Amino acid sequence: MSEWKVYLKDNNPGALEKALNCFNIFIDKIHRSILTAEDVNPIISMLVEKCMTHMKPVLKKLAGEAILMVFCAFETFEESQDTLLALAGHKVPKNAAAGTLTLGLLFENFGVKKLKYQDYAATIVKNSTSTNPAIKTAAYECYKGCYKWMGDALIPLIEDKLKKQQMDDLKKLFEEVKAKGDKSKRVFKSE
Questions:
Q1: Which among 55, 41, 42, 67 has a CA at the least distance from the CA of 13?
Q2: pLDDT tens digits for range 12-60
């Protein structure tokens, strides 16, 4: 697994796109017993920091798909919790935005039963009050992903932590989620 880090940090967008396509095929075929936290966490960090922050939209899409596939194969979030929190709380704003967006992607696709909202709540609240618009938008995407599964039960958990304007903005986003009505989710390979 560690060989992938070399290819996933390539600066050439064309080469990086090919590496992501190959990685997605590889991770789709891999068996759970081969994956360890020591392998997965650096790969997740690399995908978020190098690919999710990239200017080329196709690379962001492929990286997002790769992250979802890694967790489908790895079948646990607990061993990657520290990595995900570190990425969402990164000192570099574009990495923090990408890390928070990744959390939103995971919440939206796997739900709040597999990825525990409480474990990430403080970081999401902190990012939603950020002055950086990219980080704030990414935090709102996290809330949208959580709302998809929790519904109105999420509102009392965040209402007292956010300003009135932020809650108004979120309620508009929540209405979009309600209107969509999508409850599809990803499952682990063993399910």
A1: 55
A2: 999 999 999 999 999 988 887 888 888 889 999 999 999 999 889 999 9
- Give the separation between CA 103 and CA 14, rounded to whole angstroms: 26
Pair 111, 167 in one domain: yes
> What is d(CA 155, CA 49) in angstroms, rounded to the nearest whole number?
31
Residue 131 is assigned to a structural domain of this protein: yes
**Interior angle at CA 180, CA 116 and CA 186, nearest 5:** 40
Structure tokens at 146: 């959580």
Task: Specify whether 70 is located in the same domain as 1.
Answer: yes
Number of domains in the chain: 2
| pTM metric for this prediction | 0.89
Query: Each residue of 96-128: pLDDT tens digit?
Result: 999 999 999 999 998 888 888 899 999 999 999
Quick check: is 49 in a domain?
yes
Measured from the Cβ of residue 38, the count of other Cβ atoms closer than 10 Å reads 10
* Domain containing residue 9: 1-75
Same-domain status, 1 and 63: yes
Please, are residues 54 and 13 in contact by the beta-carbon 8 Å criterion? Answer: yes
- Residue that has been written with the tokens 């696709």 in this structure: 109
Say how far apart CA 115 and CA 109 lie, in whole Å: 10
Contact 57, 16 (CB under 8 A): no
Neighbours of 115 (CB within 10 A): 23
